[in-house]
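<amino_acid_chain>
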Amino acid sequence: MEWARIEDLRRREFSFEIMGRLRIALLGIGIFVASGALSYWLEGSYRVWVRSLCTTNGIQFAGKYVQLFVSLWFLFGSATWPLVTFLLIKKFTWQQGLIRLLIAVAVFFSVVFVLVSGWAASRVMQCTACDDGVRIMRFEEVPKDGFFVTALVLSLLAFLVRRSHG
């Protein structure tokens, strides 16, 4: 009789473990889909911000800017980053997770700012036929997706760095 109760308890624990993992998997799929859909709305703002950083560093854009669909790198990065962040943040307490999330967002914006500013300044310095230090470029010459993915990867380091106890 005692063995039957123990076996019943093991089955219940196993079913709770499966339900917990299933809940996390479904939540992860929901986060991936929702953030992917949100990327369609955010990409335009990101591209305007990157263009404004370039123009403050002496670059002017010529031609028309036409983009019908979100780029695959932006879509994949903006859908994957929240999912990976969710999975990494689970091992921290609520306060530690919030602090790390804020640090990750700050690192993201800082890295994009530094990368775009450095890239734009180097393009102006390379230009020998520029008028008054202003270089004219097409919209698609700026590697916006590369900056975006690099900043996302570097911002994940906030979750991977451990605090040393010393």
Observations:
- The longest strand covers residues 59-62.
- Helices lie at 2-55, 72-89, 94-126, 144-155, 157-160.
- The chain has five helices and two strands.
- The chain has a mean pLDDT of 82.
